[in-house]
Specification:
With 188 residues, the protein is of the alpha/beta class. 34% of the residues lie in helices and 22% in strands. The strands form 2 sheets. Strands 3-4-2-1-7-8-9 form a 7-stranded parallel β-sheet, sandwiched between helices. The protein has a two-stranded antiparallel ribbon with strand order 5-6. It is globular. 49% of the residues are buried.
Length: 188
């Protein structure tokens, strides 16, 4: 059963994540966790995403449970970690100049949930998330990468594909429905 979706994005991510969350099935039988690089003055990511999402979106709190049909966003300046059936927040040093780090989220998700994880890399201007996506694949999870040609910044999807060449490459508008097919099919 695939019951956790981990999404990572950077530059261009607000639009990309919003598009994905706006097209996932409203009855998605998986929890979604999101790490989005953002400036220290941007506290509105979760409320903005909540306006376009078919699922409820909020900033994660330490020890929040992972519940199907909910979206937890890494708060600014915190790493978001998956620990079993819940999340944890960390103020450890930035990784690749980023906190939250997509690699930290993906690597902890892979370690905690293995083949139950779907990792999704969207638009961004660096390589954060590439190593984490490869970790998800090594543990039997599914890797999805936004088609670099459709990304506002293609560097992050390109780095993810270099690290995980067998990832499913999808246009942005195809990712939400693909998540539905994978999760619903796995739940049957």
């Amino acid at each position: 059963m695939r019951d956790l979706v981990a999404i990572g994005a950077s530059w261009g991510g607000l639009h990309a994540i919003g598009t994905v969350l706006g097209s996932v099935p409203a009855d998605l039988p998986a929890a979604i966790v999101v790490a989005q690089h953002r400036g220290s003055d941007h506290d509105l990511l979760a409320p903005l995403l909540d306006k376009v999402s078919r699922l409820p979106v909020r900033d994660a709190d330490d020890k929040d449970p992972l519940e199907p049909g909910t979206v937890l966003v890494a708060p600014r300046q915190y790493h978001l970690l998956v620990e079993g059936d819940s999340v944890a927040l960390s103020t450890d040093e930035p990784v690749a100049f980023s906190r939250p780090s997509i690699d930290v989220l993906f690597e902890t998700a892979a370690s905690a949930r293995g083949e139950r994880v779907i990792g999704v890399i969207l638009s961004g201007a660096n390589a954060d998330g590439a190593a984490g996506l490869a970790a998800i694949r090594r543990r039997g999870g599914v890797a999805i990468v936004q088609d670099p040609g459709t990304a506002e910044r293609p560097e992050m999807p390109q780095a993810a594909l270099a690290a995980c060449p067998d990832a499913r490459v999808r246009r942005l508008e195809e990712i939400g429905p693909e998540l539905g097919r994978i999760c619903v099919g796995a739940a049957r």
